[in-house]
Design a protein that fits this description.
It comes from Ancylobacter vacuolatus. By secondary structure, the chain is mainly alpha-helical. It is built from 9 helices and no strands.
């Protein structure tokens, strides 16, 4: 093996990497927050919402969970303009990540809702709460507490899946690695560095979500 490793390009292309990391983090924050909110809304609709709404939400969930994320991204970015709905690269990437996490989050959160004892719903009704008020004030937090590890893992998976947005020229970390290797012809080094950065981001995000869980659900850490 005569290959000579060379990471000298890091001194020149570090701004490209930093920009890519920033966009990946931005996509993760927007997709994570809005995706979880969408997942909560859809979980309520499927578990407790009006009967006429449930088939529509179920159709959305099945459509997203049974199609590739890349196809969803291409449909949003390349397909929707045919209907006059045009989005920039980052807008399309954010939208795709939100609807993807929303569908997976819906089923995860719904599992937590369905594990809620029926007595909690009865307790809310006895206090004069509506079904929505009971959901918000009595059911939601315990349900999230039950499924937080699974939901956290899904958010990390969505963050790693964001690498696909480079295919529509969104300048994320993978786009940065592709750009660098096309200029330096150092594919091994460029993708190796990107791999290490993704690993660090995934571990950091998992730890941040674990800390957030300790903050939101203090009873959980006391056990």
């Amino acid at each position: 093996m005569n290959y000579t490793f060379d990471y000298g390009w890091l001194l020149v292309y570090w701004p490209v990497l930093v920009k890519g990391i920033g966009i990946t983090v931005e996509l993760t924050l927007v997709g994570g927050v809005l995706g979880v909110m969408l997942g909560i809304a859809c979980a309520w609709a499927r578990a407790l919402g009006p009967s006429w709404l449930r088939p529509f939400v179920a159709g959305y969930v099945e459509l997203i969970r049974n199609t590739p994320f890349l196809i969803q991204l291409f449909f949003i970015f390349f397909g929707l303009p045919a209907l006059g709905l045009r989005m920039g690269e980052l807008e399309a990437a954010n939208f795709a990540m939100v609807i993807n996490l929303g569908a997976y989050g819906c089923e995860i959160i719904r599992a937590g809702i369905q594990a809620t004892p029926s007595g909690q719903f009865e307790a809310g009704a006895s206090l004069g709460m509506s079904r929505i008020q009971t959901f918000r004030h009595v059911v939601l937090i315990p349900a999230l507490q039950r499924i937080w590890p699974a939901l956290s893992s899904q958010i990390v998976i969505v963050m790693l899946g964001s690498a696909a947005v480079s295919q529509i020229a969104a300048e994320d970390l993978t786009f940065a690695a592709n750009f660098i290797q096309s200029r330096t012809f150092r594919a091994f080094e460029a993708y190796f560095v990107a791999t290490l950065i993704y690993l660090a981001l995934a571990i950091g995000l998992r730890q941040a979500l674990r800390g957030l869980g300790w903050t939101l659900f203090p009873r959980r850490t006391a056990r």
